């Protein structure tokens, strides 16, 4: 038996099996389709940012209104603010 020796030979391998891969045309169509929805995605993102800002502001207002030191200073008319805050929170949760 002769020992095996590496010959140092280089082999170029090209894989041509595209099974399961989308064609170039399919990829092009997918990119175009994604571009169609990009503006809608951006608009949805802006709406979420505005809603989150409103929600944060509302919770900060509620915490301020329920603060013991400030709560003592609120008149019954001012306490209606708490009702409005609760309405905004309910609306925000539903939307």
Quick rundown:
It comes from Lactuca sativa. The protein is mainly α. It contains 3 helices and no strands.
Q: Can you tell me about this structure?
A:
It is a single chain. By secondary structure, the protein is mainly alpha-helical. The protein is 64% helix and 0% strand. It contains three helices and no strands. The protein has helices spanning 24-65, 68-71, 80-94. The radius of gyration is 32 Å and the shape is elongated. It starts with 23 loop residues before the first helix and ends with a helix. The mean pLDDT is 81. Residues 1-17 have a biased composition (Polar residues). It comes from Lactuca sativa (Garden lettuce).
Tally the beta strands: 0
Rg from C-alpha positions? 32 Å
Secondary structure tally, helices: 3
The helix content is 55-70%
Largest sheet: none
* First-residue to last-residue Cα separation: 80 Å
- How does the helix and strand content classify structurally? mainly alpha
Helices and strands, in order, run as HHH
Percent of residues in β-strands: under 5%
Shape: elongated
Unreliable spans:
none
Mean pLDDT: 81
């Amino acid at each position: 038996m002769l020992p095996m020796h590496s010959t140092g030979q280089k082999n170029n391998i090209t894989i041509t099996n595209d099974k399961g891969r989308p064609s170039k045309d399919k990829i092009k169509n997918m990119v175009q389709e994604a571009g169609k929805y990009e503006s809608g995605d951006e608009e949805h993102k802006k709406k979420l940012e505005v809603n989150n800002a409103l929600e944060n502001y509302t919770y900060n207002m509620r915490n301020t209104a329920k603060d013991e030191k400030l709560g003592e200073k609120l008149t019954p008319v001012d306490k209606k603010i708490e009702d409005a805050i609760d309405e905004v929170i309910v609306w925000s949760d539903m939307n």
